[in-house]
Structures are given as structure tokens and as C-alpha cells.
Amino acid sequence: MEWSSRRSVIRMNGDKFRRFVKAPPRNYSVIVMFTALQPQRQCSVCRQANEEYQVLANSWRYSSAFSNKLFFTIVDYDEGADVFQQLNMNSAPTFMHFPPKGKPKRADTFDLQRIGFAAEQLAKWIADRTDVHIRVFRPPNYSGTIALALLVSLVGGLLYLRRNNLEFIYNKTGWAMAALCVVFAMTSGQMWNHIRGPPYAHKNPQNGQVSYIHGSSQAQFVAESHIILLLNAAITMGMVLLNEAATSKGDVGKRRIICLVGLGLVVFFFSFLLSIFRSKYHGYPYSTILKTRKLSH
């Protein structure tokens, strides 16, 4: 409790972890974030998850329900590598709940890859494991309001400057490009990112390997949605070029070149997109086994 009065998240090394988290008896639950925050680890996901973790811990510390039933701690790989080895942990960040009695169960490990690391999602998981309900309070963020005000000012200023010539509002190409941007954003999973708050990518602290494509069909990284957006845009460009080559009435040689470029874009990038789909949905291409039975009369 004295440590919690000084800071919301208690930093622990191997000795403190074994004494206050692993050793019985205890009458309190402990949430531990295993991470790698040192600059040489280059774990940007760890820093992002740590910000959300700090928001959650501060919400608990300054809430009226604050008690000695729950504590938030952190174990950094460079300060407690022996803890990582003891738990056979080879990835970071990882959130675990250590109950007052018994060993942690499978559900006591937070499914970060599927749910993301938003403070609200962590609070729901903690409520499920400990019956301690934490209302998340975030510091005020006016960046969205400022950005919206700047956008409105920019559009208003543009309309004012062009008030004598507003024909560009009826430009079909401009509206088509805007519609495509919205379609690309939604089909690539940007709304899922906004709701779940997944990490941008995943870096293995053991070997430093960075993964931009999630291996499961139930989750994704932010970088993955950006890659899918670019692939969809390239395929669409190829289809536009193919349509242009078929409908235009220009030089035949030029139309043939446009057709080949469009076909190349569609074939190459759609193959790339299909390979990503295959890596996430194991067992693709799907097949149907038909069984026939001979009926004897």
C-alpha cells in the first residue's frame, strides 16, 4: 500500500516478484504487465500498451473504490529476465492476473492479440477475474476537437475563396476518389482498429523479429490494415486501367500498354492479397468432399 501511494504501477524485479506475487499467502490480487521498455529493445507496442496500463492504474488509484484488494505491477525484461524464463514467456507485452489463492489459469492471461490493449478492455478483463470494477478516466485530449476545427476552417476558407466558381463541387472524379478512400479505410479494418485498439505490430523480445501480419483470423495489427488498404488500392487502380483500355478510343498501342499494366497490377497484388488471406485462414483453399452412394432397386 505504501508503494501504491507513491505510484500507480509498482516496478518489480525478480526478487520482489517472487516475494510479493508468487509466494503465498496473499489476500490480494496482482495484475502484472510483462514488457520490454528499454530503448534498445525497440518495442513500440510495449510503450503504447504501457500508456494504456498507466491510465488504468491511475483510474484505480484515484477512484473511491481503491483498496488493498488489487495492485498493478510491471516487470521489465531487462530488470527481471529470470521471471520471463521462469514463466516460459517469449513475447511482450503480456498481461497476467495472479489470484490470491491458487495458480493462474488460462483465462488469467489477457488475450491481447485478439482484444487489444485499450484500458477499457483491460478493465473488463480485470472485473471478470477479480470482481473489481474500475471506471476508466482519461486525461482530456483536445487533439480531435482541434483537428475538426482546423478541417472546418480549411473547407470554409476554400469555399469562400472559390465562392464565385463552385463547379468543383460537382466534380465526379473528386467525389469518386473520396468515396474510394472511405471504402478502402472500411474494408481494410480501420473501424476494427478503432474499436479494439490493437498494437501497430508485434516484436518478439527474444529474437527481435517484427510481425506485421497477425497469424490468426480473429485479430489483426494496425500495420496489417495499412498493407491491406494499399493492396486494395493497387488492385482498384489496375481495374480502372483495364476499363480505360477497353473504353477509350485512343491509340491502339497506348491502349495495349495500359491494358498490360492494369492486368499486371491486378494479378500481382491480388496474388499478394490472397497469400495473406491464406496465411491467416489456415486450410485455404477450402474444399468440399462429396460422397456418392449407389442406390440399388
Give structural notes.
It is built from 11 helices and 6 strands. It is 51% helix and 9% strand. The longest helix has 29 residues, at 252-280. Helix 8 (172-187) runs antiparallel to helix 10 and helix 10 runs antiparallel to helix 11. Strand 2, helix 3 and strand 3 form a beta-alpha-beta unit. The protein has a 4-stranded mixed sheet, sandwiched between helices. Strands 5-6 form a two-stranded antiparallel sheet. It has 297 residues and is an alpha/beta fold. Its main location: endoplasmic reticulum. It is found in: Endoplasmic reticulum membrane. One of its GO terms (cellular component) is oligosaccharyltransferase complex. Pfam families: OST3_OST6. One of its GO terms (biological process) is protein N-linked glycosylation via asparagine.
Quick structural gist:
The protein has 297 residues and is α/β, with parallel strands linked by helices.
Secondary structure topology:
Layout: H1 2-6, E1 9-11, H2 14-22, E2 29-35, H3 44-61, E3 70-76, H4 81-86, E4 94-98, H5 112-115, H6 119-130, H7 143-161, H8 172-187, H9 190-196, E5 202-203, E6 210-211, H10 222-247, H11 252-280
Helix pairs in contact: 3-6, 8-10, 10-11
Main location: endoplasmic reticulum
Membrane topology: Multi-pass membrane protein
Keywords: Disulfide bond, Endoplasmic reticulum, Magnesium, Membrane, Signal, Transmembrane, Transmembrane helix, Transport
